[in-house]
Amino acid sequence: MHALTAAGARQEALAEFVPARRQFLIRREPALRRIGAVWRLGVFLLDADAVLRATGSLVRATPPGRPQGLARSMEERRALRAAAQRGGFRDGETVDFDAPVIPLDPASLRDADGPLFLRDGRALVRWSPAAADADARDFGGYLAERVDLLAHPPEGA
Prior knowledge:
Number of helices: 4
Helix content: 10-25%
Strand content: 25-35%
Structural class: alpha+beta
Number of strands: 11
Radius of gyration: 18 Å
């Protein structure tokens, strides 16, 4: 974290999805509510308090446009952009949400099916949900590489 802070590494917004609800007989539309900021480190999100999360969903806060009866997935993305707008995010801001905290205790990591797990006493990373455990990378090396890329992005990135 210190290296990321010192380098002024780019952070992204962390939010929680607040579904549509009624409040005092008034319908409130779904919104994304800001709960913090994180650094994106590949399949992980890390905050300034050293809380590690699995990368969940993300949306770029842009004007949502009007419903156009397009494919369901496109309309869902439009609705999420509208939820980000209702949450007060800046135009163009990247908003991460549905990003579960990764429990770091050994018992949880031995049984984990997420990106971080323990095998034979080693912390390993599933860099893709489709990757087999045999293809997992060493956590320390993976994290060091991601921190370095974020702290020192390639020219033009």
